[in-house]
Amino acid sequence: MRILHDNLLSRSLDTIKKMDEVALRLSARNQVLAYLWESKTVSDNNLGLKRSLALDAISDLSNNHQEIPEFMLDYLSADLTALIEKHQPDLTEKLQAAKETAKSSNQAMNIRSLFELKNGDLLAAARIRKQLVQEEDLKELHFWLDNLRKQKSREFEPLLREVIAIAERSPQISFETLLWVSPIYFHPDVPRSLQKSFAAMILSRTQPVNFSVTGPPILAYELLTGALPHIQHLLPDYYERAVSQSLVLRATIDRIQLAGEERSKRLKESQSPIEDLVQEAETAKTKSERNELLAEAAELALQKKKFNSCLDIVAKLDLEITVLDQVRFWQGWKNQFLKKVVKSAMVARELESAERAALGMTASLAKVQAVASIVRYSSETGESGAAHKLLIEAFKVSDSISDVFEKAKSFILLSIICDEVDESKKAQLLISAVKVLNDLNKPTTPRDQEPYQEYLRNLDSTGYQIMRGFKALTVSDQDAAIALADLLHKPDLRPFALIGILTGLNDLLAKND
Length: 513
Prior knowledge:
Elements: H1 2-17, H2 22-38, H3 47-63, H4 70-87, H5 92-107, H6 111-114, H7 120-133, H8 141-150, H9 156-169, H10 175-185, H11 192-205, H12 218-234, H13 239-269, H14 273-282, H15 287-303, H16 307-314, H17 329-347, H18 351-359, H19 365-380, H20 384-400, H21 404-417, H22 426-438, H23 450-476, H24 478-487, H25 494-512
Helix pairs in contact: 1-25, 2-3, 2-4, 2-25, 3-4, 3-5, 4-5, 7-8, 8-10, 9-11, 10-12, 11-12, 12-13, 13-14, 14-15, 15-16, 16-17, 17-18, 17-19, 18-19, 19-20, 19-21, 20-21, 21-22, 21-23, 22-24, 23-24, 23-25, 24-25
């Protein structure tokens, strides 16, 4: 077994060198270093190998940091730092120099830093446009636009027009951001035509009809009332309409607030507050208000551990309603809430309610995780029949998931927990995950754009799950694990499978010793 371990270690290091993505290569090296330094079975061996591996990681960080997304660079360098400071302190100075190189280079990618460079206004404007194309709401937009104004950049006015155009056609630019940029648009330096366009956009975005479903946010009212003096000056023909519009928004907000206060008072005095909330929800004037009342009723039912009532209420929610520009807000709320129901119902030993809550979630990794927690609990409490039935149901859910990464992670999770129900399915479930990952397509967008960075983020988190899955399979069937690692075709994921096998063999060696 030790010979097998050493051969696999050598093979793992070779596969890491062949990884395409620098960030994942550094992540894998960090995992191997942590294993070599912290495993009691091998920690006293391979001293030269550990130093060489640490130097390779530092070299990657120093020479190839441009290819590592900033969100990964921060935690990968932090993990490497922690390992080296603890186990190889003589390399700390080299690592610090590599981090400084990466940091100084990465600062040039920051919009704020671009303004300090020669022709930085042009670079900054290009970066702002790029982020706008990616449909982001830029929280620092007011700072960047004001910098362009102060520098008298020729990009200032074109960018103002583009922001107005985006704000007119979609809610991408939030009311909070528009509130912050208002003083810039109404600054004397801005041409009157642009000021008129901005004022007209505010009038359009704050029409009461836009909030017939959700109810107006207070920021929309503040944006409109703050713009009223400018509307009077720039668009006098529309001033009366703007004032009326602001009064309608204020009245609606006041009505919603007053209704909330009265509701709270009634609930304190009510003998059946849950039923009262549901009844009030059915007579609500907007769909958004109805959902909010139903959510409040569901939370109250959960507090009182009335699980079936709670789940009946959740089923009434309209999940298609947008909240604060978030299209899937209520879907996310429902999944998070049902997680709490699953946990609370298991504590109360009401497994039927827990199962109903878990299966009521959207077909996703979160749903499989919820079902898996019930499988564990059922197995621990001796209800093997229920656990087996749920494991089969969880497999069906996993198979129906459309997102490749979530689907693979679901199969891996089930392969880990199936020990408690049916160990014979472990390899089959992990094979299902490998097949899904082998069909994975790399985005065609440049690596500095969001789709590619999201792809890397998912690869990294999936790699960690692969390690767990292969470790668990190795402990029960090392030959099956090694054979399956050869079937994983992705060069950026195979090393994680091999690292998982190494850690599994390590556990077996420790047990034998």
